[in-house]
Structures are given as C-alpha cells and as structure tokens.
Amino acid sequence: MTSAAEKRHLDRVGSLGCALCRRIGYGETPAEVHHIREGQGAAQRAQNWLTIPLCPTHHRGDHGIHGDRKSFRNAAVDELDLLSDTIALIYGSKK
After folding, report:
1. How far is CA 38 from CA 34, 65, 66, in A?
2. Using CA atoms, how far apart are residues 36 and 50, in angstroms rounded to an integer?
3. 83 lies in which domain range?
4. Per the domain annotation, does 44 fall within a domain?
5. Which of 8, 9, 64, 92 is the most exposed place for a label (fewest CB within 10 A)?
6. φ and ψ of 82, to 5 deg
7. Nearest to residue 74, comparing CAs of 83, 84, 85, 63?
C-alpha cells in the first residue's frame, strides 16, 4: 500500500522532467516515474522513495533503461547518479 507521503513524493518526481535529458542538456521533457533497479533482485521493485523521472524514450524506448540497458549505460551516468540529482532537486542538497 502506498502512503500519502509516498504519493506526494512520486508526484514530485514525475513533475521534475527527465533526469537524463536534464543531465545531457536536452532541457525539460515530460517524465514517467522509474523505480531504480540497482540493488534489486530480478523480480523485485524498489521502494517508491527510490525513483527517478525518465522521459518515455529514456524509460521504455529502444535505448532506454528498459530497452537496451547497454545504451543507457553509455550515457556515463547510472541510476544512482540520477537518484542523487532527483533527491537534491526535491529536498535540497545539504553541503
């Protein structure tokens, strides 16, 4: 069951626009919420707190994370980099 706090978090994640498009300079693009795969078993899904925003191309497209993962990895960033960016954008970075 998803808590109210998790739903708010997921809404915030989805509203950010694609994290990878932002990283590579494409600007703001509509996003879908992706539960990271890092550290998860084959049939497991990460908690709702471990999500990043990805556009349909980078999420489900031929070269997206659920498409050809090798192409996604060639972007020189991984899910944890994008998760860090996402958390910093939503909750601010503490330095």
Report:
1. 12, 11, 13
2. 6
3. 1-15+33-38+49-95
4. no
5. 92
6. -70, -35
7. 63
Distance CA 21, CA 86 (A): 13
- Kindly state the tokens that stand for 92: 């601010």
Kindly state whether residue 3 falls inside one of the protein's structural domains: yes
DSSP string, the chain: ---HHHHHHHHHHHHT--HHHHHTT------EEEE--TT--TT----TTSEEEE-HHHHHSTTSTTS-HHHHHTTS--HHHHHHHHHHHHH----
pLDDT per position as a tens digit, 6-24: 999 999 999 999 999 998 8
Q: How many domains are there within the chain?
A: 1
> Could you tell me if residue 95 is inside a domain?
yes
Which tokens belong to 4? 């109210």
User: Is 28 part of a structural domain of the chain?
Assistant: no
In single-letter form, the type of residue at position 74 comes to: N
Show the CA angle centred on residue 27, arms to residues 46 and 16, nearest 5°.
40
